[in-house]
Amino acid sequence: MTDIEIARKCKLKKITEVAAKIGIDESRLELYGNYKAKVTAKPSPKSNAKLVLVTAINPTSAGEGKTTVSIGLADGMNLVGAKTCLALREPSLGPVFGIKGGATGGGYSQILPMEDINLHFTGDFHAITAANNLLCAMLDNSIFQGNKLNINPDNIRFNRTLDVNDRALRGVEVNSGVKDAISHHEKFNITAACEVMAVLTLAEDLDDLKRRLGNILVAYDYDGNPVFARDLHAENAMTILLKDALKPNLVQTIGGTPAFVHCGPFANIAHGCNSVQATKLAMTYADYTVTEAGFGADLGAEKFLDVKCRLSGLKPNAVVVVATVRALKLHGGSQNDLTQEDLPALKKGMCNLVRHVKNIRDVYRLPVVVAVNRFTSDTEKEIAEITGAMQEMGVHAVTCDVWGKGGEGATELAKAVRRLCDDGDNSQFTFCYDDSDGVEEKIRKVAQKIYGAKDVELLPKAQESLRLLAPLGIGNMPVVIAKTQYSFSDDASLLGAPEGFTVKIRDIEYRGGAGFLVALAGNMLLMPGLSKTPNAVNMTIDSNGKIDGLY
């Protein structure tokens, strides 16, 4: 059966029952039908609540099942008696209709209702898009209506957004041919990469949301002074558009585990984590919370630890690194079908997994376990190669089959994770860099410690941006490095665990509302494009509304 066929045959519990199981009263729910709800309760994490981060090796273009493992692990932990909730990201319509399809897990490890979550869900992404574009409209209107803020149209720093992959919007001209209006160049970001998404993800409450929105840098005036959203008096209207989107969403897994699914910034071009509110809400009602960060550990986990944890005070108790045989063979240079046994390539590609594990254990000083997400084509020799290599490092590796068995396929992994949480001493958790490090030094430490780079190079535009941003007081801000997900480096073709390369930073952007800087590496763009044959062309819908091809 396909993922969507499995999802459709599963009998869902009413979301009020799912909420009641962890102690959320119905009065704290805003229902979106029978199976989705927003939760209005205020987060207040238990003092002994445990947080588990799921990350992965550098993936293939098809992904390695990190979300599927996260869901199966949460179900498995409940099966072994650990009261557990999930805290996951919302899917973006970009990948859904692009290269990957849906992002709600797969097989018997899915969050449901799958079709709703992958499409419009509770409207959060649309609210973010609207709030973002309202700010753009108010900015252009201020210029049109006499420009009392003296805004320089050629120095606008805030972009419009849309939640689809549309490369044609990477460069546009607005106000072209409009009478009495000043035309200017602009570009669109995908919604998952826009600053309003990042702001919503990190906001603790409505007041914090409004403050952060007001701190968004939108432009410079003709004298070179910064202009913020608060100067346009836009923060209240934006907050009104986002007041419901700020509330975390509650759904369920096939196994009945409550799942807080909220916000979804990309990890290769943003900070790649679900909202602080959702994570803390899960930790309020569960003893263990399983969350994930996007793409490989060099992207999602690094940003979860160096950005989200730094800004929110969260500290993970254990980290799971997901690996697959096929991805490791790819990193070993396999020229064969990745479903065929290839031990030489697998051994050569193990360096990718080893570096990720060492980063978590030695740089961040966190307890780590490896989850081998098993596919039907994997052989016993290939599995033994991975588990043996990890054993030599003193790291436990557990094989799981969550696609075919759901939580039952992850009970051994669940036991290993629970042991790490209950026995591990997390007082050693440390960041990759210090707040007091300079911006370039922060980028260099991530590049050298996490990526294995020789050095970083700030290209002229990045150097100029740093000079212009210095008066804004950027010294203590963390840095999000936007780069390819397929390699430790900024070159997608450098697989395995490359060394001796230089990470080139072409520009640095200010995200004052979110509270971090974005360093653009290589050719990474903030608006993805569709592939030659996007997933959208394979989708069908019949006269009864039945959808096929969502995966």
From TrEMBL:
The protein, known as: Formate--tetrahydrofolate ligase
Pathway the protein acts in: One-carbon metabolism; tetrahydrofolate interconversion
UniProt-listed HAMAP family: FTHFS (MF_01543)
NCBIfam families per record: PRK13505.1
Keywords in alphabetical order: ATP-binding, Ligase, Nucleotide-binding, One-carbon metabolism
Organism lineage string: Bacteria, Pseudomonadati, Myxococcota, Myxococcia, Myxococcales
Organism: Candidatus Fimimonas merdipullorum
Molecular function as annotated in GO: ATP binding; formate-tetrahydrofolate ligase activity
Entry keyword annotation includes ATP-binding: yes
GO BP annotation list: tetrahydrofolate interconversion
Enzyme Commission no: 6.3.4.3
Reactions accelerated catalytically: (6S)-5,6,7,8-tetrahydrofolate + formate + ATP = (6R)-10-formyltetrahydrofolate + ADP + phosphate
